[in-house]
Amino acid sequence: MAEQQTPSEQTPKRRLMTLNVGPQHPATHGVLRMKMLLDGERIVDAEPIIGYLHRGSERLGEMGTYLQFIPYTDRMDYLAAIHNNMAFVHACEKLADLDVPPRANVLRVLAQEINRVASHLIWMGTFGIDIGAMTTFFWCFRDRERALRLLERMTGTRLTYSYMRFGGVKHDVDEDWIQDTREWVDQVREGIQELDDLLTENDIFVARTKGTGVVSTEQAIDYGMTGPNLRATGKAFDLRKEEPYASYETYDFDVPTSDEGDVFARYACRMAEIEESLGIVEQACDRWADAEGNHLSREVGEGSSQFRWSPPEGEAYGRIESPRGELGCLVVSDGSNQPYRVKMRAHSFSNLSAISELARGELIQDAIITLGSLDIVLGDIDR
């Protein structure tokens, strides 16, 4: 049998066409340009081109105090701003060997898991638009709006929260907020069941997602993919389990996985993760009233004390489990109240790097949903 040829070897160059998708196109979920080489509607090669949104956030972080950098982290992955806050303060707290009161850790877990659910919901809604399911968009935004209202009452803002502080969080919540959060959990569970009924066995949805955008565990690891994109290949890697922080080791939850590594598997993982996050929220609500300590460590204090705070000279790397995977932050301190160096490990950047492998050989319309299934945020990539 003759050796199988690649599409580029089978097709004369005069029949190939270069097509730019983006950077100003809703299907790219931000200012991403996909340079595609096509044989008819079949993709021979796909090159992601980034850099249209670069703002130099890490360099700006080296020009102000530690506290002043927290609002910049919000605006990287703006759909999971709480997690960006957490990655930075976690690295700083490791550097300073700073203890966090149990009450503050409960509040951190509540904020992160509500934000995780909100992030997964906006992914599912916009992914529904990619695949032609308009109802999904409306249902997901309904439940996400309820999550944002809780986060607004908790932090004071709807999207970019700046809620984390060194040694804790900005402020506490009250009993009414806890009760409303319990009711929100029940509402989201009902909404997720509706989405499951609508999509999981939908013939069109299944036909377009199963077997599309397949990646193996080995390929995912080679590209540095993490989060649901890695767990959809069967690898149960979650930093809340592997390297716990914020007392996650004391919570009971599972790490959902799938073995297929395709678009449907990534969808199924995120659906299951929403349910796990809701369970964590319930556990945190149960702990809130009896959690010891204050919402902030007395070692640092608040107000001007936070502004002047500085860790000792040295460096530390903190990493957390964001909705999109491993979000890391390297902080280098020279002993002053300004970071000497700040470097973020952007999960969206690593996840996007695999798109050439995933899209090659697919139809162009399937490449759009493959890209959407990666759940990238360009603010995270173009820091």
What tags apply to this protein structure?
single chain, about 375 residues, alpha+beta, Cytochrome-c3 Hydrogenase, chain B, three-stranded antiparallel beta sheet, 17 helices, 8 strands, disordered N terminus
Describe this structure in words.
The protein is built from 17 helices and eight strands. The protein is an alpha+beta fold and 383 residues long. It has a three-stranded antiparallel beta sheet. A three-stranded antiparallel beta sheet has the order 6-7-8. It has a two-stranded antiparallel sheet with strand order 4-5. Helix 3 packs antiparallel against helix 4, helix 5 (102-131) packs antiparallel against helix 6 (134-155) and helix 7 (175-199) packs antiparallel against helix 12 (263-288). The longest helix has 30 residues, at 102-131. The radius of gyration is 22 Å and the shape is globular. The model is unreliable at 1-5 (pLDDT under 50).
Offer a quick outline of the entry:
With 383 residues, the chain is an alpha+beta fold.
Write the layout of secondary structure elements.
Layout: H1 7-10, E1 16-21, E2 33-39, E3 42-49, H2 57-61, H3 66-74, H4 81-96, H5 102-131, H6 134-155, E4 164-165, E5 168-169, H7 175-199, H8 203-209, H9 217-223, H10 228-231, H11 239-242, H12 263-288, H13 304-308, E6 314-322, E7 325-333, E8 341-345, H14 347-352, H15 355-359, H16 364-373, H17 378-381
Antiparallel strand pairs: 1-2, 2-3, 4-5, 6-7, 7-8
